[in-house]
Specification:
Structural class: mainly alpha
Strand content: under 5%
Number of domains: 1
CATH superfamily: MFS general substrate transporter like domains
Shape: globular
CATH architecture: Up-down Bundle
CATH class: Mainly Alpha
Largest sheet: none
Order of helices and strands: HHHHHHHHHHHHHHHHH
């Protein structure tokens, strides 16, 4: 195992632990806060508002994250972000509106740092041949976070319809501890091997793919930060990035749906049975199964698929899988399921099995889109990885913030209609950009990037 691949594994395991805690909390937050409100009338914190704040701050700070990383490097940014997640989860020990919303804003800042740092660090430890593989492996390991936390919640909540204070404290304690362990794992991340990747189509042999670059010229921190911000703005208005923003927006909307709306909707549907609250955790587990299976498949087969025809077959697969999920959810759950416990039914008798199938499809389809987005960005913007991934997370988090802001008032059918429209635009945009990029690369197979010549001209 070489140093770069070991870095990817440590990064993946650290993220898996931190997000075991955070994604489990996000999955049950609506249910948890409803139980707190039932005991404390003066508590009015709303999960959807909390999540909207997280993603609104996340979106804003994505513009500043590349500047922070340009000064500190990706490892410090990742560690800082992880500490923000620990603080957010620990804040649930003190149920107060101001504490909830303040912690939500803090974790929004941390999310921008950890995800932008992740994008740069993953790219630094990959080349053109390994980017798809590393993205798939990261996604598979990372999404194992859906298992342990949600399985734990499934057993804790399985013996009753209500969630009392002792049960909540057990959940908060365990999740905070897991996030802290994940932060310690990220603390041991090692410095990336400095490299610049070139593909075979550019006329470079495998032995020469990794070229050492000189250490970057050191500038004043504020100048470096300002330059990184300007680079992010310039990159955002390029045709490829503007088109890909449609794909990013869709991933943000479906992230909102599967992480904060769908599982809670299953738990609120009384037709699911007396132990429906435990289905909230079980739904999260099935989402995780889909994510891990998708990430593992596309991590193992990434080089074969992308080498022959690119990532579009994977994205098209994600399209059909998500269409199945949307149709099954539309039939299985009532329109008012996202709000509170309801005795209403969908167009068929509520089925826990069909609900779990929908969860599995949501997870698998999400893996299809995200693994290919990571891979395309890592190859297409190899020298601009920090701003590229920051812009990805900016568009994704803006969409998520908007979605969470209307979720308290929008019924299930409206939310599914929005997803149905945006999935076609997002899929078409990805396929077009990838096709255009591949076509351009094929037309000039031996053209050498001028930036490479400039960077290596003095190293004879």
């Amino acid at each position: 195992m070489d140093r770069a691949f070991l870095n990817v594994i440590i990064l993946s395991l650290g993220f898996m632990l931190v997000f075991t805690a955070f994604q489990t909390m996000g999955n049950i937050e609506k249910t948890i806060l409803s139980s707190i409100h039932a005991e404390f009338n003066d508590f009015n914190g709303d999960a959807y508002i909390s999540l909207a704040i997280i993603y609104a701050v996340f979106a804003t700070c994505n513009w500043l994250a590349p500047s922070y990383i340009s000064v500190t490097g990706p490892r410090v940014a990742i560690l800082t972000g992880a500490l923000c997640y620990v603080l957010f989860i620990a804040s649930f020990f003190w149920p107060h509106d101001a504490v909830l919303y303040t912690a939500s804003a803090i974790v929004g800042v941390g999310a921008a740092l950890i995800w932008t740092g992740h994008g740069q660090y993953l790219t630094e430890n990959s080349d053109n041949d390994t980017m798809s593989r590393n993205a798939g492996i990261f996604w598979a390991i990372f999404q194992m976070s859906q298992f342990a936390g949600n399985l734990f919640v499934f057993f804790v909540f399985s013996d009753s319809e209500t969630i009392d204070a002792p049960k909540r404290k057990i959940v908060f304690s365990v999740l905070t501890g897991v996030a802290a362990v994940g932060t310690l794992a990220l603390l041991i991340l090692r410095k990336s091997p400095q490299r610049l990747s070139l593909g075979e189509a550019e006329g470079v042999s495998s032995a020469d793919k990794e070229l050492r670059l000189p250490e970057p010229v050191r500038e004043r921190p504020l100048l470096t930060a300002w330059r990184a911000f300007k680079d992010a703005v310039k990159l955002f208005i390029t045709p490829n990035m503007l088109l890909l923003s449609l794909t990013f927006i869709y991933t943000g909307l479906e992230l909102t749906f599967y992480s904060g709306v769908y599982s809670n909707s299953v738990g609120f549907t009384e037709g699911m049975g007396e132990k429906r609250k435990s289905l909230v955790g079980l739904s999260g587990i099935f989402i995780g199964v889909g994510e891990v299976v998708g990430g593992a498949i596309f991590g193992i087969l990434a080089s074969k698929i992308s080498g022959r025809c690119g990532g579009w077959p994977v994205v098209i697969t994600g399209l059909f899988v998500h269409l199945f999920a949307f149709i099954s959810i539309f039939l299985n759950l009532p329109n008012d399921a996202p709000f509170a416990d309801t005795a209403n039914k969908g167009f068929i008798e509520p089925s826990p099995i069909l609900a779990m199938a929908g969860s599995l499809a949501l997870g698998f389809g999400d893996a299809c889109y995200n693994t290919q987005v990571y891979s395309l960005l890592g190859v297409l913007f190899a020298k601009e990885s920090a701003p590229a991934f920051a812009l990805f997370k900016f568009c994704q988090s803006v969409a998520a913030a908007i979605s969470f802001s209307y979720s308290p008032n929008a019924g299930l059918h409206i939310q599914l209609a929005v997803l149905l429209v945006t999935i076609f635009f997002g899929t078409a945009a990805f396929c077009y950009v990838e096709h255009r990029t591949k076509k351009t690369k094929d037309e000039v197979p031996r053209e050498i990037d001028p930036a490479l010549v400039d960077a290596t001209s003095g190293d004879d």
